[in-house]
Amino acid sequence: EVQLVESGGALVQAGGSLRLSCAASGFIFDDAVVGWFRQAPGKMREGISCISGGDGRTHYTPSVQGRFTISSNNAKNTVYLQMNSLKPEDTANYYCAHQKLPRRSALADIPPETFFGTWGQGTQVTVSS
Known about the structure:
The protein is mainly beta and 129 residues long. Helix content is 0%, strand content 49%. It has strands at 3-7, 11-13, 18-25, 32-39, 46-52, 58-60, 68-73, 78-83, 92-100, 118-119, 123-128. The strands form 2 sheets. Strands 2, 4, 5, 6, 9, 10 and 11 form a 7-stranded mixed sheet that branches. It has a 4-stranded antiparallel sheet with strand order 1-3-8-7, with no helix packed on it. It is globular, with a radius of gyration of 14 Å.
């Protein structure tokens, strides 16, 4: 059974940094893609980044490009989201999600949330102005 547990959310001032962690179990990361999504109150959940375990390819949504960095520690089956230069509009509940992906597959962009089969419970990030 695939399980994901996010951590690292906190209250931070604008311009600050946070690192979110997604601890995963029950799958081989080389055969998967892990994505980070966020959902602010009253808004739809949006995909902000993903990483493919097979080739390490990453994708970002434009609003976080250059500020957020996704990475993985395959040995620990953990995916990280380093968030720098945080803005109040980054305030949201952040989720990681998993889906199997053959190693030879190459994603062109962040898949939609319907692509992912397993989700974590989320971690809250609040950025004060």
